[in-house]
C-alpha cells in the first residue's frame, strides 16, 4: 500500500488575502536567510523568513490591487513584481530598503503573468501581455527598451495570451517564447523575427499555465478543463502533442517543473496539489490541505537537495510548505 | 605493663615543657634571638662589624672565645687532661685543639658506647646496607625538639652577665666543679649559672661550657641515668642559646648524643633506658640540629657521614615505632624530620637543586627502612594518638617526596658513578637511583601507600585525614611520574575526602584538587590520566552493585568518588569516552542507578481538576509554582545523591565530546524502553553541562563550546523527544483517551516509517497496560518536558527559533489531564518564557500564536491528535487578543471542518473549544453589552456551557438561530406545535427591536467575528442527538436556558424517569465498589448524570414533583460509602436544588439529619419535630451538614440577618 500523503511541513498564515504567486530565494550561503516571496490579492508582497516562518517585510506597491507575479532579478535584493494595477515594479530590497526603483506600465487588463529570462550578465528580457488584446510585448531590462511586439496573424483568433514562458536552449542562443492563449493553443514565437514558429492546439479551454523543459524539449500545459497536455518540440521547431493526462477534477491554475526536471507540481482548482513524475507523468501524490483553489506552486532553489521545498499558495489565504523527497 | 603507671605523669611533664617552650617562642624565635645575640657579640669584640658572613663571624667570635678559654683553662691546667693544649689555644686555633683534646677523652669514655649494638631500627633503616655501618665506622647519633629549655635562659632580663668576661667569671667555678666531680648537683649548679648568662656571652664560652658536660658523658664506667639526663638537658640549653659553628663539634656532639640513646652492650641483659632520658636526648639532638647552620650542618650530609646518619635514623625510627609514650614517639618523628632536612620551622633555608639531589641520593639508602617503619606507625594502633600518626604521615611524604622526586630522578645518570677508591666502602652503602631502582621502589611504596591510605582515610581523627590530603598533594606535586601507580589509591582517597565530615579537611581537599586541576597535572600526564580512567572503569563496573547494596551515605561517597574522578580527568575525559568499553560501562551504570521508581499509583491517579479554572487558571498558577516534582528512584532516596548524579552528567557534558555523548545516549534512549527515561535525564543534564550551566568544575575546558554544535545537538534531541512515538504515550486508562492514544501510535507508525520499530515496541505492551507502565510513561513525558525547559535555558533567546517546533508540543502537555504532566509542562513554559525573555506566558503564547495555529491546524488533520489540538487552541484562545482574529478565524474553520468529519468521537472535545472561541469573541468584541448581560444572568458563574457568549456577540444571530433551531427540532421530532408561541421567553429580553433584526438579514456581510459565531452555532444544531451522554446533557442545559417550557415538558416526561431510575439502580453497586470502580464505564455514566442533572433542573425550572424525584435519587449518593467524586457530584445537585427551592431542600435534608433543636418562640406553638432530629451519626451526616451549612450561607446572603429563623415547616 502506498504511504498516505504527508502533511505540510508548515503553513504560512497572515497574508489575509488569497495568495497568487510565490517565489523562493534560498540559494544563498549560511548567513543568508532563506526567503519566500508571496504576492497576494490585496496588493501586498510578503517576504517570508523561512527560518522563523514569519513575515520579515511587507511590500506595498500595487495600490492594493492583486499581485500575480513575483520574481527576483539576479539577487534576492532585486525583485520584479506584476500586479493588476497594470504595472510591473522593480524593487530594491538591499539593506532593508523597500523602495520601487522603476516600473513599467503594461496597460494590459488581463492576468497573464509575465516571463523573465536572463540573457546576459545584467541584462534580462521580460515578456508580457501588451495593451492590445492578442499582443505580447518583450522588453529588455533594466533599460526598458522594447525588443519586439508579437502579434498573431490577422484572423488567427487566438484570444488573449494567458501564460508566457521565455526560454533559450543554452546561454547565448536565440531566446524563444512559448505562449498559451485563450483559445487553448500554445504558440512558439521567434523573438527576433517576431514570427510564429509553431502552433499547437492542446486544449479546448484557455491555457491557464504552462512550463517547458528545454533539455528534453518537452512542455506541459494545463487549462480549465480536466486534461494536462504534454507536448514536445521537434528539431524542426514544431510542437507536437506527446501525451495527455486525464484528471479527476477540472482546472489547473499553475504548473511548475522542478528545477532538476524530475517531478512537476500542479495547482488545482479542486484545492489539491498534484505531484507527477516528469518523465512519464506518473502520478506520485495528491497533497490535500487547502480549503480553496490553489493558485500557484513553486519549488525552492536550496543548494542542498534534501532541504528543497515545495510551496503552494491558495485562495484560502494560506501558503503550505511541503518537503517533497525525491 | 611496668611502664604504664609511669606514663601519665610523664606526659604531664612533657606538656609543661611544651608550654614553656611555647612561651619562649613567643618572646623570640630562637633563631632570631640567637642571631641577634651573636650579632651583639660581634659588635663588642670585633671591629669588622661590616663583614657579615657567618664564617667571618665564626672566626672573630672564635678568637674571642679562645682568649676567654685560655684564661679558663689556665686554672684547670693542674688537674685537667686538657691542660696540655693550653698553649695551642693561645695559638688561636681553639676548636681544633679542643677537638684534639677531646679525642683521647672519647677514646676512653666513648669506647664502650661505640661498641653499643645498633638499634633494631637501624637494620631496617639501612635495609642491610647500613646495618653494619655503626660498628664499622664512627657511631652516629640523633637530635630533639628545639624547646624544652628552662625559660629563664631565654629571657634577656635574666641575663645578668652580658660580657664574656663577667660570664666567664660566673661560669668558671661551676664548670671546674663539674669537671672534678660529675654529680647531678654540679650539673644543676652549672645549669643555674647558665641562666644568668646572656646568649651572646654564652656563645663566646660555648665550647668552654660544653667541655665539662661532654666530659661527664664520656667518663668511663656505669653512669647514673639521671645524671646523663641532666647533662644532656644542660647541653641542650647551651645549644639552644648558641650556634654550633664548627663541623667537628657538630659531628662529635651528634655522635655523643646518639651514643647516649643506644644502651650499653656490655651488660648482657640491658636495662632499658628511662623514657625521660630518651626524651632528653631526642630533644638535645633536635636542638643541636637547629643550632648548626649552613656548611656546618651540611657536613653531616656528606657520603662519609652516611653511617653516622644511618645510625641516628635507625635509633629514632626504633623509638618512633616501639616506644609507648606518645611524647617520645612524636619527638622522635620530629627529630627525624629535622634530620632529613625537612623541618617545619622557618629558619632553614631551602635546599637548592644540587643539595636536594645530594640529599636524595643519601636518603635513598634509608628509604626502605624509614618507609616500612613509618607505614607501621601509621597503620598502628589508633590508641597511639593522632599526633604521632600525623607526624609519621608528614615524615613519610616528605622523605618519599624528596627521594622519589621526579625532578631528581630525571637527573640521575643511567649508570652509577665510580667514586674514588678511598670512598668505595661508603659508596657501597649509597644507592644508585636509576630507573630499575625507582621502578622497584615505586612498586614497594605503592603497597605501603595503599595500606596507609586505606587505613588513614577512615581514621577517626580529622587531622590524620587532613595530613593524608597533604600527603597526596605533596606526592602528586613531586612524584607524579615516579609513583604513578600509587595514584590510583591516592587519588581515590583524595577524591573521597572531598565530602569529609570535617569542613577543614573538605576545604583543603577541594583546594588541593583545584590546584591539581589548575596546574594541569592530570592533563599533562597521560599515565596519570590512564590511572584515573582505570579507576573510573572499575568504579563504573561496581557502581550498580554498590548502589544496590550500600546505604545512602555509602552511595554519596561512591558517587562523589565518581564525580571526583571525572572532575580530575577534566578535558582528558575524552580518553575515557573514546573507549567503547568505558563509555558503555559508564552509561550502563548511569542507566541502572537512575532507574525511577514507577510504582506510585498516585502519579497516575492525580488528575488535573477540570472545569472552572481550566488550563488558563492553572497557567497562572504555574507561574508562581515551584517547579520540578521530586523524582523517586529505585535505588536511592537522598536528594543529594541525585544532585551528585546530575553533576556527574553535567561534568561529562562540560568536558566530553558532545556529539559522541549525545549520540551514545540517544542510542540508549532508542534502544530500550527500560533505559529511555534515564537516558533522557542524562541527555538533559549533558546539555546543561555542555553549556556550562550549574556545573561545578575544577578547571576550564580547553575548547570552549560552539553554540552551533550545541544547537545542533539540542535540535536532534528535541526532534527525538517530540517524535510521536515518544511524545504520545498512554498515561491513563480513560477509555476516551486510550482510544486516541492508540490511534496516535498507529498513525505514528504509518506516518513515520523510520520510527516504526520504537512504535512497535510500545504497541506490544498494549494488551496489558499496568499502572506501572502508565507511571513510567508519565515520567518519561515529564523528563522530556524538563529537557525542553533545560534546552531553552541553555540557548536563551536562540531558543526562539526552536519554538516553531517545541512550543506546540509543550502547550499540548500543559493541557494534559494527568496532573504531574500538566504541571511539569507549565514549569517548562515558565522556563521558556524566562529563557526567551518573554514577560509572561501570555506574551509567549500571544507572540507565537502563528506557530501554535500551524500546529493546531496540522494536528487537526489527524483524528488521533484532535483532542490535543483542541486543548492547545483552547489555551491559546484564552491568552490571545483581538489582533489574532484572522489567525483564529482561520483555525476555527479547521476545527469546524474537523468537527464535521467526526461528530461521533470528538464532539464533546470540540464543544469545549467552541465554547472558548465564543467566550474569547465576547471578550474581544462584546465588552459593552457584556455587563448588561451579566446583570441579568445572576448566579450563572458555574455554567460551563456554550451559550454564555452567544447572545452578546450577535444578538440577532442568536435569536434567529434559536428560533430556527426550535422549529427544526420540533419538526424533526414530529412534535410540531400548533403555533409558534413555544418560542423561548428567555431569549426575548435579549432581542433587539424587530426592524433592526430584519435589517441585518440583508446582504450586508456580517463582521468576521459574527460570521464566525454564526458558523459555530450552526454546528451545534445536530449535537442534541449526539450519542454521547455528556454532550447531550451539556447541550440540553444550554437549550434549557433558552427554551425552557417546551423542554421542561419533554424532559420530565421522557428523560428524567430514566435518569433517576438509573441513578437509583446503580447506587448500591457504586456504594460497594472499590477504587477500581472509578475507571469503569458505569461510574462515568453516574458521574455525568449527577454532574449535569443539577444545572439542568435549575435551567428548566422544574416542578416540585420532578425536583423531589431528583432529590430522592441523588440523596443516596450523599452516602459516605459512595466514591468521593459521586458524593461531590451529588452535592452539586443539591446546591442547584437550593437555588430552585431552598425550603423544600432544607426540609428534605433535615429529614435525614437535623443538627439543631428548634425551640418554638412561643409556648402556644407546638415544638418542631423533624425526623432527622436526634439521629445517630450515619453515612449521610457529613454531607448533609455540609449542604445545610451552605444553604445557611446562601440564605444569610439573600435575606437580611435574623430572619432566616423563620424558615421551618
TrEMBL record, chain A:
A Pfam family: WD40
Keyword Membrane: no
Gene3D superfamilies reported in the protein's UniProt record: YVTN repeat-like/Quinoprotein amine dehydrogenase
InterPro entries in the cross-refs: WD40/YVTN_repeat-like_dom_sf (IPR015943), WD40_repeat_dom_sf (IPR036322), WD40_rpt (IPR001680)
Keywords, alphabetical: Repeat, WD repeat
Top-rank lineage group of the source organism: Eukaryota
Repeat positions for WD: 200-241, 287-326
Record's protein name: G protein subunit beta 1 like
Species of provenance: Accipiter nisus (Eurasian sparrowhawk)
UniProtKB/TrEMBL annotation, chain B:
Biased composition (Pro residues): 139-148
TTI1 N-terminal TPR domain residues: 168-501
TTI1 C-terminal TPR domain mapped to chain residues: 1034-1146
A cellular component term, taken from the record's GO annotations: cytoplasm
Basic and acidic residues bias: start-end ranges: 10-26
SUPFAM superfamilies named in the record: ARM repeat
Highest taxon in the source lineage: Eukaryota
Ranges annotated as biased composition (Low complexity): 101-128
PANTHER family recorded: TEL2 INTERACTING PROTEIN 1 TTI1 FAMILY MEMBER, TELO2-INTERACTING PROTEIN 1 HOMOLOG
Official protein name in the record: TELO2 interacting protein 1
Organism expressing this protein natively: Accipiter nisus (Eurasian sparrowhawk)
Amino acid at each position: 500500500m502506498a504511504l498516505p500523503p504527508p502533511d505540510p511541513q508548515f503553513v504560512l498564515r497572515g497574508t489575509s488575502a488569497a495568495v497568487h504567486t510565490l517565489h523562493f530565494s534560498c540559494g544563498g550561503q549560511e548567513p543568508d536567510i532563506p526567503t519566500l516571496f508571496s504576492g497576494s490579492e490585496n496588493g501586498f508582497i510578503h517576504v517570508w523568513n523561512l527560518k522563523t516562518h514569519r513575515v520579515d517585510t511587507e511590500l506595498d506597491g500595487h495600490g492594493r490591487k492583486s499581485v500575480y507575479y513575483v520574481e527576483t532579478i539576479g539577487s534576492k535584493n532585486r525583485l520584479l513584481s506584476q500586479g493588476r494595477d497594470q504595472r510591473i515594479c522593480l524593487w530594491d530590497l538591499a539593506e532593508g530598503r523597500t523602495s520601487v526603483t522603476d516600473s513599467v506600465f503594461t496597460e494590459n487588463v488581463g492576468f497573464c503573468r509575465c516571463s523573465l529570462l536572463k540573457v546576459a550578465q545584467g541584462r534580462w528580457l521580460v515578456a508580457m501581455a501588451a495593451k492590445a488584446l492578442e499582443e505580447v510585448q518583450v522588453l529588455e531590462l533594466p533599460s526598458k527598451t522594447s525588443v519586439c511586439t508579437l502579434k498573431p496573424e490577422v484572423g488567427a483568433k487566438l484570444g488573449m495570451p494567458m501564460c508566457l514562458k521565455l526560454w533559450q536552449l543554452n546561454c547565448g542562443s536565440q531566446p524563444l517564447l512559448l505562449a498559451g492563449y485563450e483559445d487553448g493553443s500554445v504558440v512558439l514565437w521567434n523573438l527576433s523575427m517576431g514570427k510564429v514558429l509553431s502552433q499547437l492546439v492542446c486544449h479546448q479551454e484557455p491555457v491557464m499555465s504552462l512550463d517547458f523543459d528545454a533539455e528534453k524539449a518537452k512542455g506541459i500545459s494545463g487549462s480549465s478543463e480536466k486534461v494536462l497536455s504534454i507536448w514536445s518540440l521537434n528539431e524542426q521547431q514544431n510542437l507536437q502533442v506527446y501525451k495527455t493526462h486525464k484528471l479527476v477534477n477540472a482546472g489547473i491554475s499553475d504548473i511548475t517543473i522542478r528545477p532538476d526536471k524530475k517531478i512537476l507540481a500542479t495547482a488545482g482548482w479542486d484545492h489539491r496539489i498534484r505531484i507527477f513524475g516528469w518523465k512519464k507523468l506518473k502520478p506520485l501524490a495528491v497533497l490535500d490541505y487547502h480549503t480553496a483553489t490553489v493558485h500557484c506552486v513553486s519549488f525552492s532553489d536550496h543548494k542542498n537537495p534534501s532541504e528543497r521545498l515545495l510551496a503552494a499558495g491558495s485562495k484560502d489565504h494560506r501558503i503550505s510548505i511541503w518537503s517533497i523527497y525525491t | 605493663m611496668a611502664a604504664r603507671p609511669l606514663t601519665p605523669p610523664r606526659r604531664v611533664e612533657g606538656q609543661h615543657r611544651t608550654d614553656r617552650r611555647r612561651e619562649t617562642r613567643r618572646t623570640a624565635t630562637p633563631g632570631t634571638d640567637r642571631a641577634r645575640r651573636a650579632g651583639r657579640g660581634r659588635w663588642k669584640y670585633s671591629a669588622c662589624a661590616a663583614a657579615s658572613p657567618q664564617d667571618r663571624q665564626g672566626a672573630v667570635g672564635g678568637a674571642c672565645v679562645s682568649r676567654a678559654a685560655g684564661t679558663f683553662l689556665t686554672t684547670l691546667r693542674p688537674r685537667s687532661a686538657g691542660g696540655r693544649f693550653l698553649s695551642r689555644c693561645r695559638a688561636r686555633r681553639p676548636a681544633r685543639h679542643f677537638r684534639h683534646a677531646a679525642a683521647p677523652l672519647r677514646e676512653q669514655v666513648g669506647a664502650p658506647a661505640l661498641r653499643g649494638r645498633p638499634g633494631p631500627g637501624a637494620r631496617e633503616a639501612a635495609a642491610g646496607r647500613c646495618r653494619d655501618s655503626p660498628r664499622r665506622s664512627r657511631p652516629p647519633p640523633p637530635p630533639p625538639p628545639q624547646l624544652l629549655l628552662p625559660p629563664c635562659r631565654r629571657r634577656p632580663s635574666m641575663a645578668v652577665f652580658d660580657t664574656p668576661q663577667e660570664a666567664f667569671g660566673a661560669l668558671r667555678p661551676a664548670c671546674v666543679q663539674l669537671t672534678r666531680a660529675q654529680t647531678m648537683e654540679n650539673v644543676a649548679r652549672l645549669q643555674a649559672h647558665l641562666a644568668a648568662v646572656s646568649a651572646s656571652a654564652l656563645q663566646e664560652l660555648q665550647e668552654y661550657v660544653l667541655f665539662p658536660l661532654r666530659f661527664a658523658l664520656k667518663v668511663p664506667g656505669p653512669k647514673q641515668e639521671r645524671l646523663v639526663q641532666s647533662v644532656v638537658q644542660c647541653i641542650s640549653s647551651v645549644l639552644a642559646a648558641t650556634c654550633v659553628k664548627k663541623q667537628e663539634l657538630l659531628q662529635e656532639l651528634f655522635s655523643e648524643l646518639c651514643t647516649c640513646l643506644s644502651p650499653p652492650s656490655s651488660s648482657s641483659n640491658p636495662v632499658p633506658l628511662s623514657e625521660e632520658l630518651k626524651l632528653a636526648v631526642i630533644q638535645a639532638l633536635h636542638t643541636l640540629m637547629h643550632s648548626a647552620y649552613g656548611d656546618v650542618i651540611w657536613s653531616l650530609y656528606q657520603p662519609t657521614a652516611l653511617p653516622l646518619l644511618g645510625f641516628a635514623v635507625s635509633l629514632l625510627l626504633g623509638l618512633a615505632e616501639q616506644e609507648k609514650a606518645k611524647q617520645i614517639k612524636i619527638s622522635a618523628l620530629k627529630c627525624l624530620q629535622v634530620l632529613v632536612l625537612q623541618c617545619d620551622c622557618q629558619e632553614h633555608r631551602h635546599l637548592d637543586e644540587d643539595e636536594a639531589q645530594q640529599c636524595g641520593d643519601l636518603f635513598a639508602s634509608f628509604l626502605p627502612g624509614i618507609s616500612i617503619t613509618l607505614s607501621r606507625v601509621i597503620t598502628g594502633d589508633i590508641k597511639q594518638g593522632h599526633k604521632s600518626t600525623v607526624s609519621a604521615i608528614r615524615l613519610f611524604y616528605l622523605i618519599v617526596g624528596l627521594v622519589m622526586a621526579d625532578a631528581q630522578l630525571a637527573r640521575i645518570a643511567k649508570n652509577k658513578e665510580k667514586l674514588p677508591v678511598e670512598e668505595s666502602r661508603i659508596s657501597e652503602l649509597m644507592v644508585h637511583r636509576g630507573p630499575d631502582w625507582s621502578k622497584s621502589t615505586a612498586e614497594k611504596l605503592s603497597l605501603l601507600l595503599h595500606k596507609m591510605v586505606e587505613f588513614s582515610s577512615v581514621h577517626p581523627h580529622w587531622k590524620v585525614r587532613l595530613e593524608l590530603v597533604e600527603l597526596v598533594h605533596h606526592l602528586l606535586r613531586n612524584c607524579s611520574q615516579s609513583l604513578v601507580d600509587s595514584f590510583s589509591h591516592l587519588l581515590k582517597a583524595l577524591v573521597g575526602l572531598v565530602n569529609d565530615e570535617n569542613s577543614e579537611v573538605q576545604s583543603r581537599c577541594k583546594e588541593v584538587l583545584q590546584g591539581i586541576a589548575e596546574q594541569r597535572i592530570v592533563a599533562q600526564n597521560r599515565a596519570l590520566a590512564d590511572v584515573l580512567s582505570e579507576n573510573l572503569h572499575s568504579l563504573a563496573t561496581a557502581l550498580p552493585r554498590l548502589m544496590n547494596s550500600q546505604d545512602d551515605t555509602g552511595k554519596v561517597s561512591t558517587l562523589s568518588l565518581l564525580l571526583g574522578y571525572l572532575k580530575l580527568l577534566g578535558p582528558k575525559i575524552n580518553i575515557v569516552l573514546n573507549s567503547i568499553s568505558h563509555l558503555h560501562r559508564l552509561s550502563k551504570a548511569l542507566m541502572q542507578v537512575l532507574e525511577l521508581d514507577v510504582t506510585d499509583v498516585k502519579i497516575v491517579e492525580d488528575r488535573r481538576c477540570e472545569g472552572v479554572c481550566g488550563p488558563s487558571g492553572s497557567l497562572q498558577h504555574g507561574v508562581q509554582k515551584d517547579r520540578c516534582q521530586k523524582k523517586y528512584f529505585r535505588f536511592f532516596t537522598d536528594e543529594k545523591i541525585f544532585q551528585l548524579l546530575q553533576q556527574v552528567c553535567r561534568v561529562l557534558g562540560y568536558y566530553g565530546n558532545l556529539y559522541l555523548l549525545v549520540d551514545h545516549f540517544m542510542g540508549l534512549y532508542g534502544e530500550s524502553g527500560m533505559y529511555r527515561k534515564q537516558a533522557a535525564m542524562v541527555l538533559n543534564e549533558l546539555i546543561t553541562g555542555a553549556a556550562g550551566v550549574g556545573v561545578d568544575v575544577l578547571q576550564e575546558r580547553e575548547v570552549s563550546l560552539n553554540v552551533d554544535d550545541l544547537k545542533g545537538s539540542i535540535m536532534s534531541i528535541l526532534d527525538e523527544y517530540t517524535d510521536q512515538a515518544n511524545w504520545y504515550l498512554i498515561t491513563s486508562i480513560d477509555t476516551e483517551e486510550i482510544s486516541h492514544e492508540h490511534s496516535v501510535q498507529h498513525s505514528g507508525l504509518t506516518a513515520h516509517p523510520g520510527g516504526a520499530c520504537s512504535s512497535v515496541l510500545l504497541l506490544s505492551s498494549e494488551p496489558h497496560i499496568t499502572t506501572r507502565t502508565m507511571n513510567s510513561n508519565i515520567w518519561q513525558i515529564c523528563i522530556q518536558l524538563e529537557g525542553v525547559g533545560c534546552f531553552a535555558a541553555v540557548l536563551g533567546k536562540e531558543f526562539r527559533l526552536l519554538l516553531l517546533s517545541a512550543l506546540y508540543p509543550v502547550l499540548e502537555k500543559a493541557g494534559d489531564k494527568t496532573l504531574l504532566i500538566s504541571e511539569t509542562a507549565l514549569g517548562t513554559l515558565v522556563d521558556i518564557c524566562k529563557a526567551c525573555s518573554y514577560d509572561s506566558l501570555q506574551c509567549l503564547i500571544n507572540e507565537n500564536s502563528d506557530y501554535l495555529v500551524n500546529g493546531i491546524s496540522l494536528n487537526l488533520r489527524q483524528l488521533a491528535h484532535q483532542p490535543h489540538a483542541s486543548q492547545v487552541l483552547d489555551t491559546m484562545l484564552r491568552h490571545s487578543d483581538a489582533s489574532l482574529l484572522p489567525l483564529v478565524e482561520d483555525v476555527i474553520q479547521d476545527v469546524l471542518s474537523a468537527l464535521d468529519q467526526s461528530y461521533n468521537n470528538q464532539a464533546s472535545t470540540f464543544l469545549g473549544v467552541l465554547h472558548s472561541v465564543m467566550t474569547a469573541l465576547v471578550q474581544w468584541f462584546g465588552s459593552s453589552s457584556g455587563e448588561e448581560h451579566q446583570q441579568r444572568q445572576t448566579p450563572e458563574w458555574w455554567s460551563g456551557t456554550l451559550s454564555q457568549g452567544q447572545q452578546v456577540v450577535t444578538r440577532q444571530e442568536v435569536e434567529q438561530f434559536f428560533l430556527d433551531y426550535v422549529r427544526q427540532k420540533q419538526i424533526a421530532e414530529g412534535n410540531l406545535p400548533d403555533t409558534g408561541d413555544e418560542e423561548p421567553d428567555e431569549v426575548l429580553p435579549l432581542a433587539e427591536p424587530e426592524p433592526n433584526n430584519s435589517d441585518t438579514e440583508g446582504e450586508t456581510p456580517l463582521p468576521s467575528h459574527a460570521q464566525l459565531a454564526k458558523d459555530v452555532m450552526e454546528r451545534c444544531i445536530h449535537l442534541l442527538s449526539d450519542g454521547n451522554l455528556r454532550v447531550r446533557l451539556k447541550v440540553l442545559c444550554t437549550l434549557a436556558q433558552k427554551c425552557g417550557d417546551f423542554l421542561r415538558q419533554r424532559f420530565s416526561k421522557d428523560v428524567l424517569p430514566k435518569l433517576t431510575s438509573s441513578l437509583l439502580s446503580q447506587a448500591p453497586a457504586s456504594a460497594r465498589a472499590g477504587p477500581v470502580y472509578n475507571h469503569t464505564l458505569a461510574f462515568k455514566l453516574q458521574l455525568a448524570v449527577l454532574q449535569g442533572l443539577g444545572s439542568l433542573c435549575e435551567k428548566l425550572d422544574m416542578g416540585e414533583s420532578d425536583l423531589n424525584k431528583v432529590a430522592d435519587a441523588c440523596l443516596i449518593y450523599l452516602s459516605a460509602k459512595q466514591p468521593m467524586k459521586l458524593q461531590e457530584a451529588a452535592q452539586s445537585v443539591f446546591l442547584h436544588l437550593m437555588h430552585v427551592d431552598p425550603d423544600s431542600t432544607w426540609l428534605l435534608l433535615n429529614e435525614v439529619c437535623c443538627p439543631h433543636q428548634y425551640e418554638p418562640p412561643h409556648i402556644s406553638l407546638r415544638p418542631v419535630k423533624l425526623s432527622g432530629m436526634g439521629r445517630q451519626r450515619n453515612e449521610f451526616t457529613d454531607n448533609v451538614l455540609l449542604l445545610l451549612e451552605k444553604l445557611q450561607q446562601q440564605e444569610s446572603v439573600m435575606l437580611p440577618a435574623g430572619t432566616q429563623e423563620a424558615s421551618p415547616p
